[in-house]
Amino acid sequence: MHATVALDLRALRQVLSALADSGVVPSAAQSLELSQLGASTALRKAVFAEVPAFSGSGNPEILPELNAHIEEHIQEIRRLFNGGEIGDFAFLRSHAHCRAEQRFPLDATLHAYRCAHKILALWLRDAAIATGPRNIELAVSAVADFAIEYTNTVSTIITSEYISHTRAIAEAESDSRSELLNILFSGYDEADSRASRLLKRAGYLEQRQAYCVAVAQSTNASEMELPERAQRISRALATAVAATPIRILTGFRNNIVTAVLSDSRRQSGWTTPQTKLAERLRPLLLGLGPAVIIGTSTDQPSTSYLPRALLEATIALDFASVSNRVVQFSDLPIRSLMLHRGGDYVRSVAPPWVRALIDADAKAKGSLVRTLRVLADTDLNIQKAGRELGAHANTIYARLGRIKELTGLDGQHHHDLVELLLAADCWHASSRSKRN
Question: Which of 56, 125, 164, 355 is paired with 317 by a 20 to 30 Å CA distance?
Answer without folding.
Answer: 355
